[in-house]
Amino acid sequence: MNMILIGAQGSGKGTQAQALARELHLQPTASGDLLREAIASETPLGRAAKPYVERGDLVPDTLVVEMILDSIRSLNGAQGIILDGFPRNIAQAETLDARLLELGQAIDAVVYLDVPREQLLDRLNGRYICRAHGHVWNMKTHPPTVAGVCDYDGSDLYQRSDDQPDKIAHRLDIFFNETIHLLEYYGPQGKLIRVDGTGSIEDVHRAIRAGLDRLERLAPLKGALAPVPPQTVSLQEIAG
Ligand code: ADP
Fold first, then answer.
1. Which residues does residue 110 pair with via DSSP β-bridges, in sequence order?
2. What is the pTM of this model?
């Protein structure tokens, strides 16, 4: 199964992607993490992407698409991929579908984590990331046991350089003006699971799993090319 997580900055995509990847044996592919790695190792891609990431702008599609495809081609025994942060606009979604088709693959499920802008601002302002594995913590809503230290691997926590108030606002604008239109792309394909992302991490996770079960009942998710009926599954009532 191949799936996409769509959500604004701070919606909890990364946290949910890590949990789903472990449970469903999917390879997590986070475009932002891949770009930050490329920037840190000063690869040609990293050097080209750096000014865009620092401004909080989208990196040009041509650079990002090839980076994601490289990651999709090198599935190390996983049953599929879980994409976090890609696609971010309709052009990227169309290219992804076309290239997956060439590989005999398709996107089977798309989860949208719905969180209001005011709550996103609260979450992003307190966000800290673990240096070793990118686990996400929040000083207000999901603090580590010991301040500044990741519970999972003991590494230190840092604040991302693009988590400054002006850059946060700019990235949210791009999400709500551009990325949100992906719902109109995937909705009519019957692959979309809308989840209320304001609950606890466990509640959101349960709502996603319930949505996936529901999609699975409509059409088996394991067969990557299985036809999917044109219905949108809404989890608003389940997620409460
Ligand atoms: P966030 O979603 O909080 O902005 P990410 O780690 O997903 O954080 O992305 C960080 C930055 O990487 C983005 O602001 C953007 O510059 C770049 N980026 C990530 N994914 C994409 C993408 N699919 N297309 C273009 N740029 C991207």
1. 4, 192
2. 0.83
Spans of all domains in the chain: 3-117+186-239
pLDDT, one tens digit per residue, over 106-162 is 999 999 999 999 999 988 988 899 999 888 898 887 899 999 999 999 999 999 888
Rounded (10°) CA dihedral 192, 193, 197, 200: -150
Is 140 annotated as catalytic? no
Report d(CA 41, CA 46) in Å as an integer: 7
Q: Quote the ligand 1 centre to 164 CA distance (angstroms).
A: 15
Q: At 190, list the tokens.
A: 């019957």
Architecture of domain 3-117+186-239: 3-Layer(aba) Sandwich (3.40)
CB atoms within 10 A of CB 64: 23
* CA 35 – ligand 1 centroid, Å: 8
Asked whether the predicted pLDDT for residue 185 surpasses 70, the reply is: yes
189 CB burial (10 A radius; 0-12, 13-18, 19+): middle
Q: Is 160 a catalytic residue?
A: yes
Kindly state the helix (H) or strand (E) to which residue 40 belongs, with its residue range.
Answer: helix 31-40
Q: Catalytic annotation on 123?
A: no
Atom of ligand 1 nearest to the CA of 9: 3
DSSP character at residue 184: H
Strand, helix or coil for residue 6: strand
Q: How far apart are CA 132 and CA 202, in angstroms?
A: 23
